[in-house]
Design goal:
352 residues, globular
């Protein structure tokens, strides 16, 4: 038996590309056909790559300076006159410094504002803890009318940006700083509010979003070597989330692992656990996310390792989840212990 990929490329065909590059280019394309689209930035156009739009459509680009609160309030006002504002800055500033305006000005009034947050998560790396946004998703998920999306790669970012321009209502979506693997293809569907099954399997389910989708697929490829075939879901839309896909995963695969580049509090893992706990399926849900800590400055790959957000961590969690679900102490010939760490699993299961 081999892995059954769906709607994606196997890891041997991945190429690393910038999601924010795709965002900037798509804005230019949308702005060429829709004069209602305007773009706003908070003195970071060179980094968020909204400078592409500034060059192509200077009359519809507004540089707000280092004033995120003013930018969001201004965008809300412009949306009420018929414009479709896309605004950009770093996730840590948009969802922290300007959360009041996100809530009371944009969300409460259900303004048609699109908030594209660059440099989300800890993979901003050397910018350090002051710029590593681990809380942005939970902050925005708590808002009543906000749609929250985390694209996995540059192709999905293009689709999300195009969809956001057509959707009526507030949208928050997270982009990264570094290049990430391009996993999806032009034919891979993005459907608002629906999960995308990217790997077929019945030995538990890995539900991932954003850059963690690539790690989830790598974990599935690693587990397949020893005959363990988990399902992998790309949960790009966190709100509204695909409850049916979560119920199906619980019913059909018996164990769930979530993977996200976010705090353990309030993100994807919390949502999935709540949905499963309120259903009649009693299956284990193990989150792979950032524990209650700040990271340090360093290369993104090192920070993901420190935070426990690698494919080995996901594979370990999947084995534990299956063992719990089956009431067994072994999965695939590996004895699972509560205190077992990823290094132990790697040595026993994956050949060091």
């Amino acid at each position: 038996m081999s892995i059954n990929y769906r709607n994606i490329l196997p890891s041997t065909q991945w190429k690393n590309e910038l999601t924010r590059h795709a965002y900037g280019e798509t804005l230019v394309e949308l702005g060429s056909t829709n004069e209602r689209i305007i773009v706003m930035d908070a003195d970071l156009a060179e980094s968020t790559l909204t400078r592409y739009f500034r060059s192509a459509h200077p009359d519809r680009f507004i540089e707000m300076g280092i004033a995120e609160q003013n930018m969001i309030a201004t965008a809300a006002g412009l949306s009420k006159t018929g414009f479709i504002p896309f605004l950009s800055s770093y996730a840590i500033f948009l969802t922290g410094r300007a959360w009041d305006q996100c809530r009371n000005t944009v969300d409460y009034a259900r303004c048609n504002v699109k908030i594209a947050a660059a440099h989300g998560g800890i993979s901003v790396g050397k910018d350090g803890p002051s710029h590593q946004s681990m809380e942005d998703l939970s902050n925005m998920l708590s808002l009543v009318n906000m749609t929250v999306v985390v694209p996995a790669d540059q192709i999905e970012t293009r689709k999300v940006t195009a969809w956001a321009a057509e959707y009526e209502g507030p949208v928050y979506y997270r982009l990264g700083r570094e290049k990430v693997p391009t996993i999806t293809t032009d034919e891979s569907p993005f459907i608002h509010g629906k999960a995308l099954e990217v790997v077929d399997g019945s030995d538990g389910t890995i539900i991932a979003c954003g850059i963690m989708l690539s790690q989830a697929i790598l974990a599935a490829e690693l587990l397949a070597v020893d005959g363990i075939y988990p399902r992998v879901l790309n949960m790009a839309t966190l709100k509204p989330i695909d409850v049916e896909a979560i119920h199906s995963a619980a019913d059909e695969t018996g164990a769930i692992v979530t993977a996200e580049e976010h705090s353990i509090y309030g993100g994807l893992g919390s949502i999935v656990a709540r949905i499963v706990a309120s259903s009649h399926w009693r299956v284990p849900v193990i989150p792979v996310s950032i524990e209650n800590r700040y990271l340090t400055s360093g290369p993104p790959e090192d920070l993901l390792e420190i935070a426990g957000l690698t494919y080995i961590d996901i594979a370990t969690a999947l084995l534990k989840s299956l063992a719990m679900a089956r009431g067994e102490f072994e999965v695939g010939g590996v004895r699972i212990l509560p205190e077992m760490e990823k290094g132990d699993i790697r040595e026993l299961k994956f050949g060091g």
